Amino acid sequence: MFKKLTIGLVVGGALVGIAHSQEVPFDFQKLFFIFALIGAVVFMMLDASPIGTMNGGKSVFAVITFWILLITACIAGASLLPQFNPEDERAKIDKLLGKERAASQKGKAEELIARAKALDEQVKALEERLKGLGGGQAASVSLPPPSGEKPSSTAGTTAGGGGDVMKVGEEQWQLQECYNCHKLRGEGGKKRGPELDNIGSLLTVEEIRSKIYDPKSIMAEGYEKEYQKGVMPDKFKDLMEPQEMVALATWLGSFKNTSVNTPKPIKKK
Amino acid sequence: MALIVLFSLCVAATGACAQEVGASSVELPYTGNRTAVWVVAQLHILFAAFILGAPIFVVISEWLGYRKQDPRYDRLAKEITKITVILFSMTAVTGGLFIFVLLAAYPQFTTSFINQFYMVFAVMYPALFIAETILMYAYLYTWDVWKGEKKGRHIALGVLLNLVCLLILFVINGPTSFMNTPPKAEGVSPQDFIAAATLWDKIANQSWFPLSLHRIDGNVAFGGFIAGMIAAYMYMGAKSQEERAYYDWMGFAAIWIAVGGSLLQPFTGLLLAYEMCDYDFSFCPYMMADQLSMFFEMQGMMIGLLFLAINYYSWLSVKRIEGAENVRMTILAPIVLVVLLPVTMWVMNKYWIPDPMSLAFLLPLTLSPFLLSRFVPKTVSARSVIKVGFIVMLVSDAVWLTPGGFVATGTDMPDDLKLPEGWDFLASMPAKLSAILTLVFVTVVNYVLYNRTIKQGTILWGKIDFVSQFVLIFLAFISTWTMGLMGAVRSLLKKYFHTYSLVSDLSAESFTPTLSYSAWWITAITVFFIAIVSVAALVALRPSVSRVREPEGSPVPVGAK
């Protein structure tokens, strides 16, 4: 047992040494060391002497203890890993769904207004009938206003309306997570899409917009495989407002860094 | 009957809700709406997975018993069927609860969704569920009637039951997969396309078939692991050596059937991920590099542990075979084990999926220990092969678990947490696929070795190391937990939509929760599910145990009891 633990420590130490010399971050060094220790534990278990059969209360106790260990390990393991902060995404979603949420509230309010109007019509018809019957007093009958909320006049404000186009464009870059595939200003991108720092020198704003609207309209040189597979999603025309797409295209069109090798665009449509 | 009443209530509630356009949602206390739906849905899926997977497992076992004339297989099949029947009602209860919670939490979406799939929810699914119920009960209650010469008839009934189960799975996966990948067409808005789409268009969406395949082999594996856990409980409670021998065998048989399903899981899972990324490439970074990257790190841990535990159980099984020390294998086996990971990584980098050229390299390599062994006289002991296999497994697990960066999202990854250039191949998809291929190969080699060992030695049933029973419990827990985790991942892939890119989730909860928060709930779901299964096993199997212990006709004096 001691021998296997020693081997595990030596292997772990060697891995850490190699990783350290190659400037691999400390977290990875820890991970490699843990792998080596797990290996030692596995080999200890392989050659461990058999444990005796348990019965009755002893086996129940052993099973419950084992369960508690498993539960703890699963929760602790997941909690020790880096955690994504939902607030980052929440802010994005608030911006993306803001209009739809407002419209939904507005829709509810409009429905209430329609109901109130229908009630009002009924009341008026009733008044007319009462007048026809000669009951002048009926004209003074008043009904309480519908209990529904007042329609919000502020609902449905448009994002970026009257705001800075460049700011809206940059915001759309973040909201639509274009950085997941495209590198820009040295950030983001995983070689799935071309680097865009010089896109403004190669395409007009309208051409960039048409590429976002219909990804099949233009192909980047060297990205034939990605173009064929349709890697760039054909969904932005449904997710973005026309003015937001123009803002994003305008913002991208301002990138004219000729020192970056943005691939040549080839028109397809 | 209860099921029909429950379903009628659900349909009635749906109809009532459909009439009340704009019905407001209920704020569910303590958990919030989304978590409440998640917990109930996942519980329902676990029970449903068991009752759909167990019949496959059961009929295979019954057929093996008939073919080999081994009554143990028949007993195993019957015992699992008894438990399945009990869990059937839990599936119906959680299913009904799921509809109610969904209607309370998201009334407008649920109503429109049910309207989209009215034929599925109101006709096909209930009809098939009722057919399954009738067949399941008929299958159990004809067990002792259709035996001997009529056994074939009983197996045929089991096959029919499985066909209905498979149909249910395919039918209900239509709406499920629709939420992730609703059909679309170039140049047409998703809303317009769906408005004109037929029911078949909606069901046969891009992820429908891969999801169904993934769930079929997953359910078989899951049924096997749960049966293994039940065998472990019964082994621990066994009072005689005979019972212990039987439950030792049951655990072994259940695990090997589960392994059969597990070996396919990574590949059908990969196919599902491939199709989803093909549908919308933004799924890929969201899963592997962004918000869900650490969920996949956790999945890697769980699958790695699962394979280690399966092979450890196999090792313990070999240890209790008399004469195992004399079993030898060609030296090609450990050589291929050692070179497989680096060779596969090289091949996958050169010929990435779906390029079939990779098979030209990998097939001859993996088959060589079995095809060329007669030409290579040098052999090594079985123990040495298994130990080399463990080293290879540990290295493969390490490759699988090494992320591109130790951050929860790749969006803003600082350099000090990122794998440097030169090491980043470890985090690539070809490396991950090579690691899983190697894990599968090691398990196959161990299985071949085990079969060779039992042919040359004598199995001492009931004499297995007691720690193996904890391995069986561990496997059931880990597989259930992993199902919970991946269930959450599949659902979270819809991002801030109820139906991806079609119906937005306008509630305040439409964000990706933390892994830690998810782990708490997944663990709670797992514990609840396993507790129910354990109670069902005790209820279903204890009486038969007591009957075995108390043989009929034992001479007991009158008034002695």
Summary tags:
heterodimer; A: 269 residues; mainly alpha; Cytochrome Bc1 Complex, Chain D, domain 2; 3 domains; two-stranded antiparallel sheet; 2 strands; 59% helix; B: 561 residues; two-stranded antiparallel ribbon; 73% helix; disordered N terminus; disordered C terminus
Q: What count of structural domains of chain B?
A: 1
Q: What portion of residues of chain A belong to β-strands?
A: under 5%
Structural class of chain B: mainly alpha
C-alpha geometry of chain A: flat
* Cα distance spanning the termini of chain A: 69 Å
How would you describe the shape of chain B?
globular
Radius of gyration of chain A (Å) = 33 Å
Provide a count of the helices of chain B. Answer: 18
Helix content of chain A: 55-70%
Strand order of the largest sheet of chain A: 1-2
Average pLDDT confidence of chain B is 88
Order the strands across the largest sheet of chain B as they lie in space.
Answer: 1-4
Mean pLDDT of chain A: 83
Work out the oligomeric state of the chains in this entry: heterodimer
CATH class of the largest domain in chain A: Mainly Alpha
Would you count the extended β strands of chain A for me?
A: 2
